[in-house]
Specification:
Largest sheet: none
Number of domains: 3
Strand content: under 5%
Helix content: over 70%
Order of helices and strands: HHHHHHHHHHHHHH
Structural class: mainly alpha
Shape: elongated
Number of helices: 14
Oligomer: single chain
Distance between the termini: 58 Å
Length: about 350
């Protein structure tokens, strides 16, 4: 992990992790100065023998590293994969708060209860949003069927960028459906398992293509991480208001919720751009990957259906550890000289046939 962080400590790390972390620490400092959040005890600062500035800088770095480490989990939350996790967390929090109160730990019980209610709301929203998105996808699909020509093509393009091709694949969030749509693109079109095939495809992508994908994903991550930070701030303000109610605490909590939601919505267009680059990577470079697998292809050209069969054969042993039997035949990759000789022979044959 440390090596990856050091390698990433550039523009992407600053924008995607350090900036949201600085917003988190800065917002906490502002809320502390406003009396919304409790201040750090002076004795704690003296014990660390650090200035307030040093402590804040350390908090920014630690928060940035935490965002970096949990980036995948944060994205999965926004995609809507965590409904069951939030549900059971809420149940556990409710039970835990009762236990804390029974032991006389009133503040701890209140903190646990507010956190449990917070995640319970997220679970309830995700539970009801999935049927909504399924219904919306069916409505848009029916609307496409009524159109013809260019209007139909444009609406169909927008539909396939917003939702996956099947109702069963629909997720509870807008972002989740955008990501699921481009993840499903190579599966539906070429029969390539996008999740397992992506690390392999990356090995044949040119540097400029990897940069385009990385920059688009970084733009999306920056907005999602900043949104996540504001939701964390909102939770802290709600907890503070529950312990000692004040209008300022509630205003700060609601304002942070609003900012978090707006930033989440702003992350969706960059996610679509990220998805376009991922689609382009499969569209343009999947055949280079197919060649690298060494599968025997005896024809110079093939149909899309034949290509799907090739991918089905090669993925059986490569991804799922299954032997497809005699149907799959592999050929050693030719050396550069052999490739050049073969190319010259093909050119001579083409000249002779012309």
């Amino acid at each position: 992990m440390i090596g990856d962080v050091a390698k990433s400590f550039g523009k992407d790390f600053i924008t995607s992790y350090l900036v949201p972390a600085a917003i988190l620490v800065g917002a906490n400092l502002a809320l502390t100065l406003a009396g919304v959040l409790p201040a750090m005890p002076a004795a704690y600062t003296r014990a660390l023998d650090l200035s307030v500035g040093g402590i804040l800088a350390g908090e920014v770095v630690l928060a940035a590293l935490a965002l970096y480490q949990f980036q995948t989990a944060i994205i999965r939350i926004y995609e809507g994969y965590s409904e069951s996790f939030f549900t059971w967390s809420a149940v556990g929090g409710l039970v835990g708060s009762q236990g804390a109160w029974a032991l006389g730990l009133w503040t701890a019980g209140t903190v646990i209860l507010v956190a449990a209610l917070f995640v319970a709301v997220i679970a309830i929203v995700q539970h009801h949003r999935k049927p909504y998105h399924q219904s919306e996808r069916r409505r848009l699909t029916a609307e496409v069927e009524t159109l013809e020509g260019l209007p139909r093509a444009r609406r169909e393009f927008a539909l396939h960028r917003a939702y996956p091709s099947d109702d069963e694949l629909v997720l509870p969030t807008k972002l989740g459906n955008i990501v699921r749509a481009f993840e499903h693109h190579p599966v539906r079109l070429y029969n390539v398992d996008a999740i397992a095939g992506w690390p392999r495809l990356m090995t044949v992508l040119p540097a400029h293509m990897r940069d385009l994908i990385g920059n688009a994903q970084s733009d999306c991550n920056t907005l999602l991480n900043t949104s996540f930070v504001f939701f964390v701030i909102a939770l802290g303000c709600f907890i503070t208001a529950a312990i000692k109610f004040s209008a300022v605490s509630m205003f700060a909590a609601l304002g942070s919720l609003a900012l978090g939601w707006i930033l989440y919505l702003l992350a969706c267009p960059p996610a679509q751009q990220w998805g376009e680059y991922v689609r382009a990577a499969f569209d343009l470079y999947r055949l280079d990957l197919l060649k690298q697998t060494g599968i025997e292809i005896k024809v110079k050209s093939f149909t899309l259906e034949e290509e799907q069969n090739y991918w089905a054969l090669i993925q059986e042993p490569m991804l799922y550890l299954k032997d497809p039997g005699e149907e799959l035949r592999l050929q050693p990759r030719a050396t550069e000289k052999e490739q050049q000789d073969a190319k010259e022979r093909e050119e001579k044959e083409d000249d002779a046939n012309a």
